[in-house]
Amino acid sequence: MKFQIIKNKLLGLIIPLILYVAWDFLTSREIIPPELLPAPKVIFDTWWDLQSSGELALNMKMSLLRVGFGFLLGAISGFLLGTAMGLWKPVELYLNPLFNFFRQIPVVAWIPFLILWLGIDEWFKIVFISFGAFIPMALKTLEGIKGVPASYLEVVRVFEYGWFRVLRTVIVPSALPSISTGLRLCLSEAWMLVIGAELVAAGEGIGNVMVIARRLFQTDVVLVGVIVIAITGFAMDKVLGLLETRFLGLHRSQNAQ
User: Fold this and answer.
1) What is the domain count for the chain?
2) Which domain holds residue 138?
3) For residue 13, is it within any domain?
4) For 74, which of 102, 132, 134, 222 could close a Cys bridge (C-beta 3.0–4.6 Å)?
């Protein structure tokens, strides 16, 4: 079993390795001009220079702070709305049509409106990020609460539990897998949107570094930004996935006891 897992992980490295070899071959022989696609070594050297100077760390810190605030704002508000629509039928009847209408609008379509209202300062970026994080969180929370088995609710009605106790001991635990998935979707969306916000307007942030590099035709810096964004997003999703697995496993063991 363990050998099969290792084998599957190694198989997943084949395509990236082929792409790397092709990239190195095309750039080392200048089949593709280095101005359009720098060699892997150049990318590594550029990353090292940006990291050593502290420029990369400073801009990544700003991007991560924006993601953190936007993620929290969107996740909390999405959880509250999803919970309200899932628990109270009148709330769902009033709000669900409007919510379904607004969730069809791409988040980037709100950029001109948000800039008019909030300018291009930090609040614009945080609210923009929270818009994207809000929708998946509300949807997955609603889905989780709607999926609570009716038999569970029948039992708590028999024992005449109060609403808060029902929410704490039955509804939220049952909906937890769906809520956890919503959090991962939230974080992924927030990380993608912070780059979009910084590409539009930012004084600092990894997206701003890429914008300046594009204007100066520094394709190596742009590619470093793309790779750092991909690795950071992958790492955040993996960490949240591990926390989700650990937390859900702990929760199930406590319920079993």
Assistant:
1) 1
2) 47-256
3) no
4) 134
Question: Residue 39 burial by CB count (10 A; 0-12/13-18/19+): exposed, middle or buried?
Answer: middle
Q: Mention every residue, 6+ apart, whose C-beta is less than 8 A from residue 132.
A: 70, 74, 107, 189, 190, 192, 193
**Residue 252 pLDDT > 60:** no
Per-residue pLDDT tens over the stretch 58-117:
999 999 999 999 999 999 999 999 988 888 888 888 888 888 888 888 888 888 888 888
What is the domain-level CATH number for residue 235?
1.10.3720.10
pLDDT of residue 256: 44
**157 falls within a domain:** yes
Its pTM stands at 0.82
CA 106, distance to chain mean position in Å, is 16
30 is a domain residue = no
